Amino acid sequence: MNIVIIGAGYVGLVTGVCFAELGHRVVCVDRDEDKIGLLSAGRPTIYEPGLEEHMIRLMSEERLSFSASVVDTALADVVVVAVGTPQRMDGASDLTDLESAVRSFARFLREDAIVMIKSTVPVGTNERVREWIKEETGRNADTVSVPEFMREGSALQDSFHPDRIVIGSDSEQAAARAADLHAPLTSNILHTDLRTAEMIKYASNAFLATKISFINEMANLCDKVGADVQVVAAGMGMDPRIGNAFLKAGIGYGGSCFPKDTHALLQIAGHVDYDFKLLKAVIEVNQTQRKRVLVALGEQLGALEGLTIAVWGASFKPGTDDVRSAPSLDIVPELVSSGAAVRMCDPAAELGFRRAYEHPQVTWHKEPLSAAEGAHAVCLLTEWPVFTEVDLTLLRSVMAAPVLIDGRNAYQGEAVKEAGLYYTAVGRPVLR
Ligand code: NAD
């Protein structure tokens, strides 16, 4: 098939690679000409393990190409829409990019083409997509909602081996074509109506966010009663009804999906006068949880004015350069306001973070140990292996004071203590 993907970001680029690997001819279209220039030169614009190798080979085999023009849509059997749907000030999804993308390619659509929406969109949006196309062309187009579940950091693996594919449609023929396209990837294909497919995406992310906020509340309680949340989570996870995924206490979730999708779901509920109390609490717990690093620093060091704090990790999780809604973007400005000098390190997210936040009190360092030099405390915000595998004795030797705040419960407490460091994690005993 000829496939055109609109929006060559995390989802669009990885989806393009995946469909091209299946043998289709894929053109990724983006309105950002700089991005298209880099991609056309074989340079991935995001960090995602394995992406560059796939991209370069597929481009040389002429199965994957990039374009800044929606005119390419005229060739497509399937048009996949993967533009961003960021959070508006009021919490709802901003559909401006989606609407302008759809209106821009509508008149080039072939009569037999299907439009597949992969962007995460509020319930009812796929129906609006059809209306926008009708307004532009006077024609009814077949739309299918195929929400995306890939995780940054393992996006290629997730695309090649998805747990499930959800296909929402009210056209049997379009649903069957979407199913054919995904059949080589999994036999777990769930067919639904459009609104249910849209809701499955929000329900999945909200549920995972709930698990995280739940275990973080348990961690806070463990702190007060002297229990170890790591062991509590392990014990809970042995029950297959609970499962051990997403039961890792820490400083909360971030990224381009959970924060915005939980807020968007709250808005969806609000529009139909439904008071989603549980979800409100999930969001509130997550926001408060980030402050734990600052509270722990205060407990260990008192006022931070004039002190040096090393921050390890800027991306919202390891394996990605994405800093959207990352805890680092809340924590670092707070450290700066409290008068600390901040020494940062991240293997992939320096550029992204600096685009969002720069300050003369913040310096960047290529190696974890250089960032820790002269620091009164090291705060681990993202559990990249380069941080968790560091030689702790060496770490202690370069620091000015022995404080390690582990926002991700990534170290063995006893090993930290043996290296001569004071150790504060989340929901685990403080060791010194
Ligand atoms: P992104 O910001 O990385 O990429 C979006 C791309 O769309 C950008 O390159 C932008 O330039 C382009 N774009 C915007 N408007 C356009 C237009 N009119 N024409 C052409 N290109 C246009 O976003 P993303 O992280 O890939 O997310 C895309 C969608 O997928 C969102 O709805 C998101 O919620 C959803 N999603 C993301 C992930 C993830 O892990 N990132 C996972 C599942 C679902």
Quick recap:
This protein is α/β, with parallel strands linked by helices.
- Roughly what fraction of the amino acids lie in strands? 5-15%
Structural class: alpha/beta
Query: What is the number of domains?
Result: 3
Here the CATH topology of the largest domain equals Rossmann fold
| Portion of residues within helices | 40-55%
Strand order of the largest sheet: 3-2-1-4-5-6
Shape, principal axes of CA atoms:
globular
For the record, give the distance between the C-alpha atoms at the N and C termini, rounded to a whole number. Answer: 62 Å
Average the pLDDT over all residues and give the rounded result: 97
Tell me the name of the CATH class of the largest domain. Alpha Beta
CATH superfamily of the largest domain: NAD(P)-binding Rossmann-like Domain
What count of helical segments does DSSP give? 18
Please give the CATH architecture of the largest domain.
Answer: 3-Layer(aba) Sandwich
Bound molecules: nicotinamide-adenine-dinucleotide
The total count of strands amounts to 14
What is the CA-based Rg, rounded? Answer: 23 Å
GO biological process, one term: UDP-glucuronate biosynthetic process
Family: Belongs to the UDP-glucose/GDP-mannose dehydrogenase family.
InterPro entries: 6-PGluconate_DH-like_C_sf, NAD(P)-bd_dom_sf, UDP-Glc/GDP-Man, UDP-Glc/GDP-Man_DH_C, UDP-Glc/GDP-Man_DH_C_sf, UDP-Glc/GDP-Man_DH_dimer, UDP-Glc/GDP-Man_DH_N, UDPglc_DH_bac
Binding site for NAD(+): 30, 35, 85, 120, 152, 260, 324
